[in-house]
Design goal:
The strands form 3 sheets. A 6-stranded mixed beta sheet has the order 6-10-11-3-12-13, sandwiched between helices. The protein has a 4-stranded antiparallel beta sheet with strand order 2-1-4-5, with no helix packed on it. With about 900 residues, the protein is α/β, with parallel strands linked by helices. The chain is about 55% helix and about 10% strand. It folds into 6 domains: about 60 residues, no CATH class; about 180 residues, Rossmann fold; about 100 residues, no CATH class; about 180 residues, no CATH class; about 110 residues, no CATH class; about 160 residues, no CATH class. It has 29 helices and 13 strands. The longest helix is centred in the middle third of the chain and has 29 residues.
């Protein structure tokens, strides 16, 4: 169990652990929605959330999983790829190895380039359409693959890009060889742990980019601070807003003190005052006037205070109570014949008037009431009878009695209290007190109305609730505020007169103006604080996408899992290819952003030089092939290997080693080989044949199958495949005589000159190749074959005794006559196209010779001809025949037609 690696994973940010768990459970990397989800988790973690996360299950990295087994079955419906004929196709069959053979220009590279683009090869280059055609088709093809035994058709086009199913298919050609030899090359294969980290690095980059875009979508909307206020302490505070600042703290900082505007105006006026001394004198007068006004208001407030109101209404209630008691006593004192209301206030008024009239006018020298014998009533002027005298004396006794006196006293106290109420000036006189107080007129008018109503209600009020309220405190506060403002202005003006104090006052005023500006823009400032908090959260989340820990861990694993392994694999590949003597080794050139790059370097070189500057072309090719195989063959996935001319520039020794290596690769996965080299084709064919013979000898042995596809070019169209099996020599000659020569004659008879020339030249070329094969397979009985290093003698050497000088002459003549189109001719003596009948004679000559030679019997041996060693004469004869055969074999190469 890889506890160390899983323990390291558990120390990563929780959102990244979730991404790792997703990769384990879902093979594909996250799409746009997945990245958005991971970014949301990253933000949640930045806010210390602990829910919604997952982790990699224990034991996940116990073993390296193998990838899917993928094979390319066919390519068809090709459109717009190089000079490949539209609609052309290749069927690779089910064999583990497919060799696509054809001469130069037959279309091999077109197919190889198409596969490179479909697999997303690093050295794919640009895939051109047919440059000799004006058409610009949509370059596309259908590729049929087999994944884990299940076939599926994939639609590929240049516009769509590489196919995901073929992303692990590996292509080697000249461009890839140059890439490995001349530049730094990023490792194609990474062990699972390194590959896993690489994918996490990619996810971190994508999430970081997403969060960065989110930051860009949170612009500032706060207006610019006025330049004249930018140097204030409050401006610096606003500029330095931090995410740690709370909204209540900011609001407390921006709270406006009482009378802020007035104080600011005071400072501004003071700084603008041209003659402070005069203003100070005016302030003194205003303060004095305001003090008088304040005293007036305070006096009224005190006279109409709640305490005075309570006292006055208490006296009113006492007077009413005493009068009611006196009235009740009068009712009791007077007889029932008296009118109602006796003793009431109205009656008392009338009685007091009668007393005054009697004492001053009617009977000035007599006591009241006058009840002498001739006295009259002072009210009705009638003479008083006995009962009337008695009633008047009773009334007088009541009035001067104790109860009545108490009622009078209570009433007098209330009246005295009412007279003691403060006098309220007329409204015009009242308002005149406030003309020097800006903004006080309305408050003064309102206060006058309230006090008028209060004074009017007080004399008759029996309780506080019956009296309207008259709160003069706002008016007092207004006056006091003006006085304080004047005092502040006076203080400021006093400082302004001192030059050393003026800068401090100006600074104080700027701070007050800045506070005003802040409150005018409070909403924007609070939005800015919210934006800063969001940005801080995004920054915290973005820091959690930093890949340093990932790349550091990958760097620690590189030497263990990749660097050392790659060097060892490269050395092993060099040995397998017979190139161990070449002093080249891969060197790690860089380790950045979770990636590792290699560059090939010379070993023990005394001067600095690149390998491609020192090695021969063939050495460079085999070294590049070793680097390629060491890079990609270690992957667990069984994906196709595609080689385009893998033995270019290699000699026969390297070529044979490459064949052995390709054969070994084909044992584990599909290998596709594009080549024009007959030698490579022959070696592969012989190797597969030997492998098959060996498999027969081993119980349960599985022979390696090979498919051969021959490509040709016809009428400017390349990539035409012929999957016909190679015919025996005699059958192939018969095919030329019976089918191809009559077809060429048809072109000649109908006047189609160009078609006839192409057909007859192809017949000539193929007849020459068949003549070469006749030398190998018929004359020499396949004892020796070109491009095959082994010499097969068992049950074959005896046929050599059939060879005569006539055989050599016949074959030599045919080789000469049929070679005219295989070799360049001088411009002044161009080759003449042969007639149909001439070619027919050559074909029939070859057919007849093959037929007669095969029927010829081996010369019988006499007893004298059985020595342990051949005679001198016999040795000379055999030597001559072999030399002649060798000359024939020395002609130019074969083609497997």
């Amino acid at each position: 169990m890889d506890n160390a690696f899983e323990s390291w994973l558990s120390g990563l940010p929780k959102w990244l652990q979730t991404a790792a768990a997703d990769l384990v459970s879902q093979a594909p990397s996250p799409d746009d929605e997945g990245i958005k989800r991971l970014a949301t988790l990253c933000l949640a973690e930045a806010q210390n959330s602990t829910t919604g996360f997952s982790s990699v299950p224990a034991g996940t990295f116990d073993a390296e999983p193998s990838g899917a087994a993928v094979r390319i079955r066919s390519i068809h419906e090709i459109v717009g790829v190089n000079a490949l004929a539209d609609g052309s196709s290749l069927d690779f069959g089910t064999a583990s190895m497919a060799v696509i053979y054809g001469p130069n220009g037959a279309g091999k590279s077109g197919y190889a380039r198409l596969l490179k683009h479909a697999a997303g090869s690093r050295a794919s280059g640009e895939l051109l359409p047919n440059v000799y055609s004006v058409a610009s088709p949509d370059q596309r093809a259908t590729i049929k693959i087999e994944r884990n035994g299940i076939e599926q058709s994939l639609e590929w086009s240049v516009a769509k890009g590489p196919l995901d199913a073929l992303r692990h298919a590996h292509v080697f050609d000249s461009a890839m060889a140059r890439l490995y030899m001349t530049t730094k090359s990023e490792a194609s294969y990474e062990p699972r742990r390194l590959r896993f980290i690489s994918r996490l690095v990619s996810i971190c980059d994508q999430v970081g980019s997403y969060l960065g875009n989110q930051k860009a979508q949170v612009p500032s909307s706060m207006p610019a601070i006025p330049p004249d206020l930018a140097s204030t302490e409050l401006a610096k505070y606003i500029k330095a807003l931090r995410s740690s600042l709370t909204l209540p703290t900011l609001r407390a900082k921006l709270a406006v003190p009482k009378n802020h505007a007035e104080k600011a105006k005071t400072l501004d006026d003071a700084l603008r005052t041209p003659n402070p001394v005069i203003r100070i004198e005016a302030i003194a007068q205003q303060k004095k006037s305001h003090a008088i006004t304040l005293k007036t208001v305070e006096t009224l407030a005190m006279g109409l205070s709640e305490e005075r109101l309570a006292t006055l209404t208490g006296l009113r209630r006492a007077a009413v109570t005493a009068r009611e008691a006196a009235t009740q006593a009068a009712v009791v004192a007077f007889d029932q014949g008296s009118l109602s209301g006796v003793g009431a206030p109205a009656w008392r008024t009338m009685w007091d008037a009668a007393r005054t009239y009697s004492a001053k006018v009617a009977y000035p020298n007599c006591r009241f009431p006058n009840v002498e014998h001739d006295a009259r009533c002072p009210l009705c002027q009638q003479e008083l009878d006995a009962s009337a005298k008695k009633r008047l004396e009773g009334f007088d006794a009541f009035v001067v009695g104790e109860v009545e006196n108490a009622a009078k006293a209570a009433q007098g106290a209330h009246e005295a209290a009412v007279k003691g109420l403060p006098a309220l000036p007329a409204e015009a006189d009242w308002l005149a007190h406030f003309t020097a107080l800006p903004g006080a007129e309305q408050a003064a008018r309102s206060a006058h109305a309230l006090m008028t109503a209060r004074l009017a209600a007080l004399p008759k009020a029996n309780s506080v609730d019956e009296v309207p309220a008259a709160d003069l405190n706002p008016l007092k506060a207004l006056i006091t505020g003006h006085i304080e403002a004047l005092e502040e202005e006076d203080r400021v003006l006093a400082k302004v007169q001192e030059s050393s104090e003026r800068p401090q006052i100006e600074a104080q005023l700027r701070e007050m103006h800045m506070l005003t500006w802040c409150n005018d823009n409070r909403a924007s400032i609070e939005q800015e604080l919210d934006r800063i908090k969001k940005l801080a959260l995004l920054d915290t989340a973005i820091r959690q996408t930093n890949t340093t820990a990932l790349t550091r861990k990958k760097g620690a694993l590189v030497e263990e899992e990749l660097t050392g392994g790659y060097r060892e694999r490269f050395a092993a590949e060099l040995r397998a290819l017979g190139a161990a003597r070449i002093p080249v080794a891969p060197l790690v050139s860089s380790k950045t952003k979770g990636k590792i790059e290699f560059a090939l370097g010379l070993v023990d070189a005394k001067r600095q030089a690149a390998p491609d500057q020192v090695l021969s072309e063939g050495e460079a090719r085999v070294v590049a092939l070793a680097a390629f195989l060491a890079d990609v063959t270690v992957a667990g996935a069984k994906t196709p290997f595609i080689f385009d001319d893998p033995v270019s520039s290699l000699d026969h020794e390297f070529e044979e080693r490459v064949v052995a290596r390709l054969l070994a690769l084909a044992k584990t996965r599909q290998v596709l080989i594009f080549t024009h080299r007959v030698s490579l084709l022959t070696l592969l064919r012989e190797a597969c044949k030997s492998d098959g013979e060996l498999a027969k000898k081993i119980e349960g042995g599985d022979a390696l199958a090979m498919t051969q596809i021959t490509l040709c070019r016809r009428e400017g169209k390349a990539g035409l495949a012929t999957n016909e099996k190679e015919l025996p020599v005699l059958a192939a000659v018969e095919d030329i005589i019976k089918k191809r020569i009559p077809a060429a004659k048809t072109f000649s008879d109908s006047g189609k000159v160009s078609e006839y020339e192409a057909a007859i030249k192809a017949v000539c070329s193929d007849l020459r190749i068949l003549t070469e094969r006749a030398v190998e397979e018929v004359l020499l009985n396949a004892v020796v074959k070109r491009f095959r290093r082994s010499i097969t003698t068992m049950n074959k050497l005896h046929d050599l005794s059939k060879i005569t000088f006539s055989d050599c002459d016949t074959l030599d003549d045919l080789m000469t006559r049929l070679s005219v189109y295989e070799h360049a001719q001088p411009d002044e003596l161009p080759a003449v196209v042969p007639e149909v009948e001439e070619i027919r004679r050559h074909a029939e000559t070859l057919r007849d010779w093959i037929d007669s030679f095969k029927k010829r019997k081996i010369p019988s041996r006499t007893k004298k001809s059985v020595p342990s060693l051949p005679s001198q004469e016999m040795r000379q004869e055999i030597g001559t025949r072999l030399r002649n055969a060798g000359e024939l074999l020395g002609q130019d190469g074969l083609s497997p037609t």
